[in-house]
Amino acid sequence: MEEGTLKSPSNCEVTGSQGVYGDTDPFQWDTREDCEVRQILDRVADKWSLLVIALLDSHMLRFTELRRRIDGISQRMLTVTLRQLERDGLVKRTVHPVVPPRVEYELTPLGATLHTTIRSLVAWTEEHQNEIAAARADYDARTAAESAAPEAAAAASAS
Fold first, then answer.
1. At what angle do helices 36-44 and 47-55 cross, to 10 degrees?
2. Interval 64-78: pLDDT, tens
3. With contact defined as beta carbons under 8 Å apart, do 112 and 57 qualify?
4. φ/ψ of residue 140, rounded to 5
5. How far apart are CA 133 and CA 59, in angstroms?
6. pLDDT (tens digit, 9 = 90+) per residue, 95-124?
7. Torsions phi, psi of 45, nearest 5?
């Protein structure tokens, strides 16, 4: 069994009164380790899964093709990622009975719906990348100035 995976399914529904977020309170599933929503988000939001899903959009690819196209992924990590995506019903694995065996991967209809969501996230990122870059530069300048101020004060008091 995969590390961090529970043996039995769990339910993380909010019971009783609803908080300020209604029935979609992000804190109720974020703080509970046994929550299926948290486990699914951890899986589909990981960088290797996102890349695999993106590459399999409208394409059936062999393992070696996937590995060649995903820079930096190890054979073991690709194997683990594909198994997890297959287990979650997002990827279909087809083994062709030839010698040597040919194994191909493709998105399931469920996986294709996730790819649509990923495209939306990428579009949002592209649309806002300049704002994010400006915010990062502002933050870096602000924190650099804040860390330089105590050092300057210490140097002045030492002289």
1. 60
2. 999 999 999 999 999
3. yes
4. -60, -45
5. 33
6. 999 998 899 999 999 999 998 888 898 899
7. -95, 0
